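Hi all, long-time lurker, first post. I run a small reading group and we've been trying to get comfortable going from sequence to structure in the token notation. Rather than ask abstract questions, I figured I'd post a concrete chain and ask someone more experienced to write out its structure so we can walk through it together at our next meeting. Sequence below, copied exactly:
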Amino acid sequence: MGVSKPTYPEPNIANNHREHSLAGGSKSCEHDFSGDLHPPSTENASGCSCCFSGQHVPGLDEQQPKKHGPTATSDLKKRYQDRQYVVNLIYTETSHGRRGKDCTCANKSCKLLFQKQIGSVERIQKDLLANWGPLSTRKDRKDNLYTDLLVGQQHNPTTGKLEQHWLVDGHAVCYNFYLKARGYTHEYVRRRRVLLKQEDVTHGSIDAYIESTKSGTSPHKKEQFVSWLTDYATTVGDYMPNEVAVVLPYSKFEGVWMEYKFEMQRRDESWCCYSYACRIFNEEIANIRLVRTKGTFVSCKVCTSYQMRILKSRSSLEREQLKLLRLEHVNKQRQERLHYYSHREAALQSPDKVMSIIIDGMDQSKTNIPLFSRRTSTRVISQRLIGVKVHGHGNWVYLVDENVKGGANLMVEVLRLTLLDLETLGKLPHVNPTLYLRLDNCSENKNKVLFGFISHLVSKGVFAEAYIGFLMVGHTHEDIDQFFSIISAHLRKLETICPDFQSLETEIANSFLQSKKNKSQLPNIRRLCAVEIFDYDRYYLPHINAMLAHHSIPCQFWFQKIGTVVLCQMLQNVVS
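-- Answer (accepted) --
Happy to help. Here is the structure in token form:
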């Protein structure tokens, strides 16, 4: 069985002379094109431009094959996916592709071998599709080549050396036929053979070797990078309350890799390349991620400053000093967070003695109404959601519109209404009661009016003492954000929320009622109007000590009654 040799049209070019019919007469050229189907460059050494003067030469453009050049991957895939390519490879003497002869055997034994076998075309095409199929990648071609190289290595008992055999469908073939049957180039195979000789690989470790050579990196470098990244995340990462993940202080992976590289240079060890480290981070690290550039969480300016100075530093000594300062800053915020968790646990264990409250605001863009599943140009009504979490007692949600001015009066009113509800429910602590209050570190929360209200509570005996802690900017991710994520996740599923307050309140409640796991966190929802908020600023201003200053610097405040006076003490360090 055979297929007749395909015929190719002869180019309409004379061997030693041709004439072009150009506008204005005829012109001769003595270039010899015999035996070459590829025309020379337009900028030839002889300086003759008659053949490529920009005019269309009849017959030349249609019949002449294009000049050799880089072929796109899509073109190669189209070529090797064609079944006729394999048929011509097996049943014709010469392939007219860009890679030259397809079999260098004297009697074309490679072709005769597969011509005698049934189904050889389908099997060779299957191997080609493994390299050039629609879903195949560069990595697949590289891995398949490494497998062929390792399987084809055989020991020669006469010379005592390893010899490379080229196998196609389990049969030894010549080198050129192997290249044709796999779609490789000689240079590509040569480079991979050089890399293979540089590694100590056995036939029993083919899979492990392919995995380790995905980017030319040895296995120990992968373990080295994963170990360093885990320790790095433990040291400087930020733990998220609403997800099982540690957030690294960089928004781009380049910064993480640069710190890894600097550390390996300090240890005088080799490091893996950026692309390989990036793939390990994306494919194999599940609980560590980069900080997002979009969202409600603000980046810490101190951390960002240290990171930029570390990356720009030219001295290893300076870099180590900056790392120590950054570590001190990270440890400080972690210590504050641990104390917050300890106070929360104390409130859960002893509700009659301790009360722990955290107040925060939700991202306003997620609660504006009308709310659509995608962005529109429709004018929205600003809605602000303020959440209050009283550990062990429940959650409160306060909705305010754009008519309510934010600031000290709003935050004090939210805290007062929450305490009134707790008093009505009989849940206020009564045995030497202590209040632990957590807020974001901003001027709306940290102000003299709030301090006056807390002092008033202590002076009236509602609490024997009170501690106010302000979360460090950029490190404000706490358990109340997990509470907000339940609401935002439910609102994202909705197509439309009508521009009325009742619809928004209903959907906030549904976000908890529609899930058995979250039903216990159903909050008390209340709407605040501008006329309902008392002017605490004017009320407490005459009673606030005029000597109180520089309160924007510390993050911890302690209120305690001594005699008839309430003392406010600013704490530089974290209180226990």
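A couple of things your group might point at:
The chain has four domains: 9-69, 73-212, 219-332, 335-571.
The mean pLDDT is 76.
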